[in-house]
Amino acid sequence: MAILGNIIKGIIDVKDSFSSEKNPVEEQQDLLKKLLTKAKNTAFGKHYDFESILESESPATAFANQVPYFDYNKINSEWWYRLQDGEEDVTWPGHPKYFALSSGTTGKESKRIPVTDEMIDAIKNTGIQQVFALSNFDFPADFFEKEIMMLGSSTELKEHNDHLEGEISGISASKIPFWFRPYYKPGEEISKIDDWDARVQRIAENAENWDIGALSGIPSWIELMLQKVIKHHNLNHIHEIWPNLQVFTSGGVAFGPYEKSFNALMGQPITIIDTYLASEGFIAFQSRPDTDAMKLVTDEGVYFEFVPFKPEYIKEDGSLVKDAPSITLKDVRLDQDYVLLMSTVSGAWRYEIGDTIMFTDVERAEIKITGRTKFFLNTVGSQLSVNKMDDAMKHLEAEFSTKIPEYTICAKRCEDDEFYHCWYIGSEDALDEQQIVESLDNFLKEANKNYKVARSKALKGVKVTLVKPSVFHEWSGANKKKGGQVKMERVMKADKFKEWESFVTEL
């Protein structure tokens, strides 16, 4: 009998039955006051007079009026850079022990996002909330006795000045509570292996010793790990070695493009649960089975604001114009794209994370991620921004003495069932496509850390088709978008790209 599983399931069910209905709007109002009170004596809090905001009739309104929007470059150049010099009480009391490394969209250096003890607690508490939400999925008792494979970044954090650095998944995994460690795989020793291939090889070698009931991680890396385990043990599918696998907690990128290939590795259907964990905080998770939307975490360290995603509010680089209007959770509407803003217990204030979201249920505060504030290619985790694409075109222009006024790109599975970045590049010159492929690929590997990692794993390669620039103009005309201010879609989804390729072929 699954005695332990019944006990755990019983605790979860009882906790769920005694939990009172929470009001997300009230939780957010209370949280803003707590954040402002905690940080009012920091350099940031004094500069923007948090004391007066707290004393105002409407702290949310005063906060929006007195504190400007920040993206990473702005808050880092004005405030966070002081943390690297060891300064305390800058945007949050004390000095963070950790910094989450996250690849930036400009420059080759990774972003360094402060991660405070309060943020680690918030992420841990949100993880517990998600565990309790499993009662809504009606899993059998023995599921709660199975082990969980969490495939993230290395938990071997690097020392830098007076703090430790690593990706947020590695920081979070390094702080796993003692009671959870018996369930956590691949375990501390293997999780510290920095080389991804070596780590996955060790997982494959040990897979038969584990009884995995759940997987957690980015779909592309999980898929490759499963393929490695299947190949190492000469299996037909993963359920031959992990027969009790029932859940995949997906995060990092959209699961949709991976659904078919992922399911092909299974011997039976499993439950997919989406999560939204960023370097800046644990934002949302799917809390019930009858939706694929995620519930905003409104009571654990993150205060949210929302700016309607309209062209007049967005600069060309994807950041917000100064006077773009923001609203709070109580005023959001269904089926409207919003730019997501965060203020957190790590000292991010009115911070543009770069994502756009849409509410599918206002009362439950449930959302879906709808895109990025600028064109952004992240199907296989390459995190390739338009800024980097433009830089790559300038590089090609210089190297091949050509002009490239137009281009478009799509990440898609090709005939060999592998992901490629498929580029259409407009040039009047007779260029060698293979030389362009090699130059483009090498440049992006140097310019973007995540692209380089993706190219060694889930992203098989680059394909380039050279066409006349006039083809792009004809496409715009055929789609009734011709005009001097019209811009070609730099990034296309697979369905639109299929139409584009058919259009090019028929010309």
TrEMBL record:
What Pfam family is a match for this entry?
GH3_C
Its recorded name reads GH3 auxin-responsive promoter
Domain GH3 middle, by residue range, is 297-362
Q: What GO molecular functions are on record for this protein?
A: acid-amino acid ligase activity
So which domain of life are we looking at?
Answer: Bacteria
All residue ranges annotated as the GH3 C-terminal domain in the record: 390-494
Cellular component terms, GO, for this chain's entry? cytoplasm
InterPro entries, A to Z? GH3, GH3_C, GH3_M
